[in-house]
Amino acid sequence: xxxxxxxxxxxxxxxxxxxxxxxxxxxxxxxxxxxxxxxxxxxxxxxxxxxxxxxxxxxxxxxxxxxxxxxxxxxxxxxxxxxxxxxxxxxxxxxxxxxxxxxxx
Length: 105
Description:
Layout: E1 3-6, E2 9-12, H1 29-36, H2 44-60, H3 66-72, H4 77-83, H5 88-96
Helix pairs in contact: 1-5, 2-5
């Protein structure tokens, strides 16, 4: 697995850039990852989704799909696509430091 440095911390990532070990993630990393995903600023709504993704991952072992994210995160699917235009579940998982959710291509 490749290693990259984010916020001065070396982390192991998959070939797609997803964290292998979500415990290595810190909130300081999210804005750096967001900038790389062409999201210039993380708003409170972004953080709501990022934290929800992490909670779901640690509770269930995988991040939610876009459909479940829209139903259970408190952010509508339409808004999810506005916040994470390159794909809500995949991008939010990347920013949250969790593995790519099942079903994401």
